[in-house]
Amino acid sequence: MTKTGQNMILGTGHTVPDKILTNADLEKIVDTSDQWIVERSGIRLRHIAEKGAALSELATEAARRAIDDAGLKVEDIDLIVLATVTGDMKFPATACFVQENLGARNAAAFDISAACSGFIYALQIADGLLRSQPYRHALVIGGEILTSMVDWQDRNTCVLFGDGAGAVVLGPARDGRGILSTHIGSDGAYSHLLYNAGCGCINMPTVENVQEKIHTLRMEGKEVFRHAVVAMSRAMKKALKEADVSSEDLDLVISHQANLRIIEALAKRLKVTEKQTYVNVDRFGNTSAASIPIALDEARKNGIIKEGSLVGLVAFGAGFTWAASILRL
Ligand code: UT7
Description:
Elements: E1 7-15, E2 20-22, H1 23-27, H2 34-41, E3 45-47, H3 55-70, E4 79-83, H4 94-102, E5 108-112, H5 118-132, E6 138-145, H6 155-158, E7 163-172, E8 178-186, E9 194-195, H7 207-211, E10 218-219, H8 221-243, E11 252-255, H9 260-270, H10 281-284, H11 291-301, E12 310-317, E13 321-328
Parallel strand pairs: 4-5, 4-6, 11-12
Antiparallel strand pairs: 1-7, 2-3, 6-7, 8-13, 9-10, 12-13
Bound molecules: oxa(dethia)-CoA.
């Protein structure tokens, strides 16, 4: 028997800052080249926010578009779950600023932190709360201004990231559609391979810490790459099994957009074709928790996927964390 979901995606939206940073621009900042960046990551350009811009602004715009797309009013939203590691402030939650911007008076709002896997974690949490609480509609947002924590002198990382936000509205499923399965996992043994040690309680913003750029992102790219491919393929296989479908059945796989080579290696492991694989990392770079909802919205709006399509989402990020979900749109 085909599995059915209890909640489905009713609408999607995304937004990115207007400002574009090309590989040629980066050549002027660090010792790099367009050729190296394209060959090693597939990235050609990324959108970046102005210094001091608020993530809540991007997240609010993405949310408005998703609510409009769902044909709902802001008062219909009962829950706002925002996945990010680059919120406006340490607290309160950026989701509360989004709630205020939208005027979503009836919603409970909070943030979650699972780095690049955050959106699928948030989807899982929202789906669970919709099932267990008297809520009907949840806004699930993935958003980052990751360039706010980039060390612009570190060529190993500064060429990789971009900013943006994507959102979906979840609500009651019908016609055999909905979230068929979700698998999330993590392994804290690898936290030292991708982290930002500043901005927490251990490393206060002292003059020494600021001078040592303790508040910037650090990554062992090669190690992260290796783990990402293995963990994402394992997570996706679990989600496929749970949904009782095979990779051949998928109309589209939307994997976290960190690196074209990772996306291709994953496709090979999952035995999915180029046609089944969505790629926009060339135009956005790695937008962390925003990458999947941005891609999902693009793929829906340009007609690659439509009502009834079977879609696999899969992500990997700091923690390490990983997550996969199978949806019937
Ligand atoms: O979102 C969470 C998940 N994040 C990821 O999935 C990112 C995973 N990692 C990656 O995408 C890749 O590892 C990178 C794109 C970060 C790097 O690609 P790589 O093929 O693993 O290169 P590498 O780090 O091994 O560096 C190869 C060489 C090094 O030079 P030597 O030591 O061989 O002389 C680097 O110093 O490339 C050098 N290099 C650069 N050269 C020009 C590193 N960054 C740059 C650069 N421009 N921007």
